[in-house]
Amino acid sequence: MKFLTHLPSFCLALATAALISPHSAHAATFAEGTDAGQTLGTAKIVDTSAFGTSLDTITGNIPVGLGRADLFQIYLTGGTFSADTNLTTGTLTDTQLFLFSASGLGVFWDDDAGTGLLSQFSISNVTAGIYYLGISGYNYDPISAGGQIFSGTSGGPTGPGGASPLTGWAFTTGTTSDSGVYTISLTGATFVPEPSEVMGLLAFAGLGSAAFLKRRRLV
Ligand SMILES: [Ca+2]
Ligand SMILES: [Ca+2]
């Protein structure tokens, strides 16, 4: 999937515009299944439905144990994006939600803006493309080579490590975190394209792999 990560956003934006139409606007849920990893290389890729299928819900589980987070690769359609553990309460009652760019840089996070200790945030002016959505139980937090990526209880990557990409997770306080099942409700997200879909979409957009490679060489 490194190919996708490095694909120019304009190509996928074109592909999105070509594919996402009122006729393909059905929605679907992604179930975690086997445990999602917590790094860019081990994140679970949300690709079980066709690219362009609206991703309304992610369900999963944070098992009891010392330090666990789930990371999902998703596609944001651009504009407004929201994520929310508040609408369908699970047994993971103190959630934390994190959004990262395709390169692992922190974008936004929230701890407790939902009911009780649940999480919700909405951001606007999002550039379409691949992103990573993370969820953990309080107080297990993402870190980079510079330290904590986020700070406070909500907002952008204002922690001391906020300028560097995700490398792992660590307890900010304590040595255990909340566990249980969760449901994340989303707007502004779709399933991500599989490699075969990307090539088809590029051809559909009139770009083709040859043109894409030529552009790469010229950059
Ligand atoms: Ca999990
Ligand atoms: Ca929380």
The CATH topology annotation reads as Jelly Rolls
Structural class: alpha+beta
Bound molecules: calcium ion
Work out the radius of gyration: 17 Å
What is the top-level CATH class? Mainly Beta
Instruction: Detail the poorly predicted runs.
Output: 1-6, 20-24, 208-219
Give the rounded overall mean pLDDT.
Answer: 85
Give the number of helices.
4
The structural domain count equals 1
Please count the beta strands (DSSP E, at least 2 residues each).
15
CATH A-level architecture: Sandwich
Biggest β-sheet, characterized? 7 strands, mixed
**SSE order, one letter for each helix or strand:** HHEEEEEEEEEEEEEEEHH
- As a percent range, the share of helical residues equals 10-25%
Strand content: 35-45%
Query: Judging from the principal axes of the Cα atoms, what is the shape?
Result: globular
How far apart, in Å, are the first and last alpha carbons?
21 Å
What would you say this structure looks like, in words?
This protein is of the alpha+beta class and 219 residues long. It has a single domain (2-218), classed as Sandwich (Jelly Rolls), CATH 2.60.120.380. The protein contains 4 helices and 15 strands. The chain has helices spanning 2-6, 9-19, 195-204, 208-218, and strands spanning 27-31, 44-45, 54-62, 69-76, 79-84, 95-101, 106-110, 120-126, 129-137, 140-144, 147-148, 154-155, 166-171, 180-187, 189-190. Strands 2, 4, 6, 7, 9, 12 and 15 form a 7-stranded mixed beta sheet that branches. A 5-stranded mixed beta sheet has the order 1-3-14-5-8, with no helix packed on it. A hairpin with a 2-residue loop joins β10 and β11. It is globular. 38% of the residues are buried. Residues 1-6, 20-24 and 208-219 have low confidence and may be disordered. One calcium ion binds next to β6. One calcium ion (CA) is lined by residues 32, 35-36, 60-62, 70.
